[in-house]
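note to self — DONT lose this again. spent like an hour looking for the file last time. sequence + predicted structure for the chain T wanted, 154 res
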Amino acid sequence: MKPKAIVLALVLFFVTAAVCLAQGVNMGTWKLNEAKSKLVPGVAKNHTVMYEAAGDSIKVTVDGTDSAGNATHNEWTGKFDGKDYPVSGDPMSDARSYRKIGARTLALTIKKAGKVTVTGRIVVTANGTSRIVTTYGTDSQGKKFKNIGVYDKQ
């Protein structure tokens, strides 16, 4: 094999390995299991959440329903570094941050106009087949809530 071909093969190997490592346990499509979840009535629901690689970042696509039952769709692209990145398509938030706090755990912060509206924790089970999303916030009437969403990997 020629030296150029060897170098190219090594570069492709390391790029592929880096992408796989970056993906982690959260990557893939997750569907809300309402039977196992403890959701406050009248709060928006994220029915399907998809995490995918987007270059050196992560793209999160969320499809769900708002508190009135209307379909919603929003997207976020950023890194799991605790910094705010913009959200598109969500009238209730304009920035979101994720921070990795363990091999299977992320901290989540959602903001609107610079103000924290929701905080939470995302924990993927040891077998990787489900994840538990616990969020705390204040609804549109100013009442505090706690939701526990259980998602199954698709």
